[in-house]
What does this fold into?
Amino acid sequence: MASSGNKNINAKLVLLGDVGAGKSSLVLRFVKGQFIEFQESTIGAAFFSQTVAVNDATVKFEIWDTAGQERYHSLAPMYYRGAAAAIIVYDITNQASFDRAKKWVQELQAQGNPNMVMALAGNKSDLLDSRKVATEEAQTYANENGLFFMETSAKTATNVNDIFYEIAKRLPRLQQAPNPSGMVLVDRPAERAAAASCCS
Amino acid sequence: MMYGGSGTQSRRDLAIEYQAQIPTLRPSIHARRANMTVKFQDLYGFTVEGNVDDVNVLNEVREKVRQQGKVWWALEAEKGANWYLEGHISTTLKSSLKISSLVNAITLKKLIRGGIPPNLRPRVWFSLSGAAKKKSTVPESYYNDLTSAVEDKVTSATKQIDHDLPRTFPGHPWLDTPEGHAALRRVLVGYSFRDSDVGYCQGLNYVAALLLLVMKTEEEAFWMLAVLLENVLVNDCYTNNLSGCHVEQRVFKDLLTKKCPRIAAHLEALDFDVSLVCTEWFLCLFSKSLPSETTLRVWDVLFYEGAKVLFNVALAIFKINEEKLLMAHQVGDVINIIQRSTHHLFDPDELLTVAFDQIGFMTTTTISKQRKKQEPAVMAELDQRIRRLNSNSNDK
Ligand SMILES: Nc1nc2c(ncn2[C@@H]2O[C@H](COP(=O)(O)OP(=O)(O)O)[C@@H](O)[C@H]2O)c(=O)[nH]1
Ligand SMILES: [Mg+2]
It folds into this structure.
C-alpha cells in the first residue's frame, strides 16, 4: 500500500511515429528485454504494461504502441487521449521519419493534454554509418518544443530503459504532493511484468 | 512446388495434411502434472500455446469437425453436390422447387452456423459469398493478367506490402516461407491495383493470408478478398481515413450499451474506450485474436449472413467475460481479460452459441440504419481533426 511513503501510480503512455521507426521494437526491448527482427505488424495499437521504480515510487506504464501506416493516424486520438506521456519516435537514418515526428509533436501540442510529458526518441542509434538526422538538429528542435530528447537503440538496448525512466521521473504526479485527487493507487505487485500478449 | 497453382495437383488440402500429421494431441504426463504450457499446431498449422485443458478442447473440436463433415457429406449424397446453391439463389426456380429451396435455405443457415468442414470450405465459400459470380464476369485470364502486369511496379502500397510480408503470422510453416510470401504478395499487390482507393491497408495482410490457407489457390483467395471488400463489408473500412471502420466502432458502442448495459456502464466509468480492443477485430476480422478454426467459423457465417455477424461476435466476447469485466478496475486488467479470453477460445461453439443465441437477433436493415445515423458524425469528427492539424501547422 501507499502507506510507507511509497507512491504507486499508473501512467498511460503512447508511442507515435513513422512506420519502421522502431516503436514496436522499443516497447519489446523495454517490456521483455528482447529484439526480434520481424515482429507481427501492429494493427490499430498493441497494449503492454511495465513497471518502473523511481526513488520511492512505482510507475506502472500502460503502453500503447500504435500502428504507423498513414491511414491509421485517424485512430490516433483514441490512443493519446488522456495519456500522461508520449514517446515520439523517428529513425536517425531516415529524414522523412524526423519530419513525420515533428507532425506528431504538433498534433499532440494542438490536442493532447498540456501536462503530457513528451519525449523524442532518435532510434537506431547503432546505425551510425547511415545517419541522416544530426543529433544537434534534433536536440535543438526538442529544446525549442519543450521535449525531452534521447537517441536510442532497440537493437543494442542503449538508452531504452533510460528513456522510460526519465519519463517516469518527469511525470507531474510524481512531483506533486502525494495522493493528488484522481490518482489510482495500486496495492499489489505488477502482474506478469511483461504483458506477453499484446493487442493481438 | 507452387502452392497456389491452378492445376488440381496443387490444390492440396492443407487442413487435412495438418490433421494427418498431428492426429490427436497427447500432452505428456509431465505437462499434465505441472499444468504447464504446451506448444502445439492447430488445424491450420498455427503454433498455439495453451495448457492441457486447451489441448483437450482442441481435440474435441477436431472430433466435432469430423462429425460435421459427415453431416455435410450425407446431405450432398442426398441432395446433390451443389444443393446449397439452390437454397441461396431461389429466385429463378419453379414454384414446385421453391419449397425445397426454402427448406434448403433453413437447413443451410443452421448448418453453416454449425460450421463448414475445412475441406469443403473453399467450395462452399467460393459459391455462397458471390466470389464465383464475381470471377465469372471477367475473362478467365483476369488474375494472371493482372498479377503479371503489376509484378514489377513499385508504389507506396507495394512498399508497405513488402514491409509486412515477413510480419504476417511469422513462424507459420507455409505462410512464412518464400513461397508463402510470394503468393501473399501477388494477392495483395494485385488487389491494390484492382482498387486503388483501398490500395493496401495493414490488416488485409492477415485476412488475405488466412484466405490463402483456406482457399488453397491464390486466385480463389484473391476473389474472396475482392468479394469481402466490395460486397460483404461496409464501404470504406480500409480506405483513406478508415471512415467505415470508425462508423462500425460507433455502431458497436451503441449496441454494447443496448445489449450489455452493465458492461458498457462499468467500462464507461473506467473511462475505457472499447474501440481500444475492438478496432483490430473489425480490421482483421478476428484473425489476429481468435484461434484459427474459431476465426474461420466466424467467417463461415460472415460470408453467408453478412457483416452484421461481426457485431454478434464482438458482443459475445464481452458477454462471455461479463462477470470478470465487472470486477476489473484498471484499463490493463480489462485488456488482459479480453485478450486472454480471445486467445483461448479454442471451441468455436462456445463463442457462436453466445453470439447467436444470447445476444439476440439483429437484422441487416437495423444495422444499416444505425450506420447511416453515425456516418455524418464520423465525417465531422475526421474533418475536424484534419482542420485542426492544418491550422496548427499554418501557425508554425
Ligand atoms: N539497427 C536497428 N534496427 C532497428 C532498431 N529498432 C528497430 N529496428 C528495425 O527496424 C524495423 C522496424 O521496426 P519496428 O519496431 O517494427 O518499427 P515500427 O513500425 O515503428 O513499430 C525492424 O526491422 C526492426 O528490426 C534499432 O534500434 N536498430
Ligand atoms: Mg509497430
User: Anything to note?
Assistant: The beta strands of chain A are 7-17, 45-54, 57-66, 85-91, 117-123, 148-151. The interface with chain B takes residues 10, 12, 19-20, 38-45, 47, 49, 60, 62, 64, 67, 69, 71-72, 74-75, 77-79, 81-82, 103, 106-107, 109-111, 184, 186, 191, 195, 197, 199-200 of chain A (CB under 8 Å). Chain A has one domain: 7-174. Residues 7-174 of chain A form a domain with the Rossmann fold fold (CATH 3.40.50.300).
